[in-house]
Amino acid sequence: MPDASSEPDALSEPGTITVARALELPALHRGLPEILTGADALERPVRWVHAGETPNIASLLKGGELLLTTGIGLGTRAAEQRAFVRTLAERGIAALVVELGSRFTALPAAVVDTARSYGLPLVQLHREVPFVAVTEEIHTELVNAHYALLRRADEVHRRCTEVRLRGGGVPEILRLFAQFADNPVFLETADGRLLYAAGPPGRAGLADPLQVWDGLRAARAGRNSGQAGAGLRPNAPGSPNAPGSPGPLGSPGQELPEPPAGSVLVEVPGGGPGPGAVRARLVVLPAEGPLAPVHRIAAERTADLLALVLLQARQEEELAARGRGDFLTDLAEERITAADAPAQARVLGFRPGAGPLLPMVMALSTSLAPLDGGDHWAALAAVLREELTAVGAPVLLGVRLPEGRVPLLVGLHGAEERAAVAERVAHTLRAAVERAWPERTPALGHRGARLGPPVVVAGLAGDWGAAGPELRHVASAASAARELPDRPWHDVRGLEVDLLLWRLREHGDLAAFVHRVIGPLLVHDRTAKPPLLPTLQAYLAHAGRKAETARELHVNRQTLYDRLARIARLLGSDLDDPRTVLALSLALQARRRLP
User: Fold this and answer.
1) N or C: which end of the chain has fewer CB within 10 A?
2) What would you report as the CA-atom Rg of the chain, rounded to the nearest whole angstrom?
């Protein structure tokens, strides 16, 4: 039978069907197919179907074809027949289908034995079938499969576009793509620095994306002959110890090794002049299952969308900081164990040594936090990265846009340097906010400034096991400290009462407590002059020292005595009783927390 098909260039990477599915199609099924060898390989994908009779047919194929033949090209000698089958198997065809009758009534043993030795599916047809009908039917299946791939890729692209139109950025797009691929997805810079990692959600037993990246990094470093990080200063941006930087995986100007076989790697265009400039690389790794052609198609379309997002917002610094913020949040919420945390932190460039870890959080005031993200957060992330290189200690810093928080871990040499390092880091954080957002921070700490300064809280230093819970505690304390008078930084140990009252702020008993303890005084101050609440606050702030209280209020002692006596009568309390003083102090603090 003459050659019946050729491969069109338009479908150079079509969808596929399996050999088993092809044998089930009516055109082949009518030929009464009998599987002689390779029954365990019938799930091989069929990339195309070809019919031919020439002895050198293997040289015309690319691999993945289902070859139809009557056996004329097999030759008459056993050596020719073995060579015919061997070259087809080495070419990587999907299956060999031989129609009996024209040349053979049964396939020679040399053909069957050679196919069996190579694991090649060999099928003989006991009834004549028109090969053109077979090729048309299989081609239709392939085109339909390819169209289904395109539809799936279009659906992913549509959903990613919707995420972007709703205000989502690169993290949201990557998480959606990871869910579609059911495998971890990474966005890296052109030189291999990790910007963001996302994994498929909601399945137990999945490898953490950062652990997967760590394995990829190690494999690449091995193939790159130990060149990773060459020539970088300690704590310099991009070096292994730079704050929040995983460091490049290859030296500048050198080609980055490719990820493992079966991965999908797509370049995100942009980042320089010329049509071939690369801004980033989208990498999908087959950690949980194999990747299909649809994943590459979808990745290529997603890469174009990512290029647009990065171009609009210049998000690289923000992305890296958000990725570190996600890690710190997962650590705080105990979604990462203390055993796994050090390795994942190393992937993010944090190598603190054997000393304790100091958790800290900077909370931005509600009016100061730029909730729109974009250029504002990118600017802050870039400035923080630059400023923290001068701290003199390894720092892992992230950003949490929804909460307006900047969590970080600082590596200490010893617990005794906690206060000094906290002071330096807090000063650096606040200075970075002023530098990044000068138009939004008029004179931090200036009385009467329209926007409040950020709040920095330092926790207790400890090991990795304590770092997560302490980060969570410090984050809550930072929220509670937003309403306190401004100071360079807060020690979490001094915020325990404020944190307790902040957590009870919505509880009805707290309002009832305030009303019982100082309610009469509040009622008095609504109508009477002068108000007495400031006098009570100053008196308690100075621990009952009347001379200091009078000086702060700018009144003489007798006036102060008269006011204190009126307060005692209104409240029916003894202001010299320690328990009364404690209740009044708590009530005044609780009053600030009431909605």
Assistant:
1) C
2) 35
Peptide bond just before 260 cis, omega within 30 deg: no
pLDDT tens, position by position, 408-448: 999 999 999 999 999 999 998 888 888 877 765 544 444 43
pLDDT higher than threshold 60 for residue 251: no
pTM of this prediction exceeds 0.70 = no
Question: For the segment 538-584, what is each residue's pLDDT rounded down to a tens digit?
Answer: 988 888 898 998 999 899 989 989 989 988 888 888 888 888 888 88
Q: Peptide bond preceding 530: is omega within 30 degrees of 0, i.e. cis?
A: yes
3-state secondary structure of 463: coil
Helices (H) and strands (E) in the chain, counts: 19, 16
User: How far is C-alpha 202 from the geometric centre of its chain's CA atoms?
Assistant: 15
Q: Beta 45-46 vs 48-51: how paired, if at all?
A: unpaired
C-alpha pair distances (Å), 19 with each of 16, 42, 267? 10, 5, 33
Phi and psi at 109, nearest 5°, equal -60, -35
List of domains in the chain: 9-145 (3.40.1390.20), 167-226+236-313 (3.30.450), 349-503 (3.30.70), 508-593 (1.10.10.2840)
Residue with tokens 């707290």: 510
Tokens found for residue 445: 């700490």
Band the pLDDT of 89: cuts 50, 70, 90.
very high
Q: Which two tokens stand for residue 104?
A: 């053979």
- The beta-strand segments (E) located in 229-311 are 264-269, 278-284
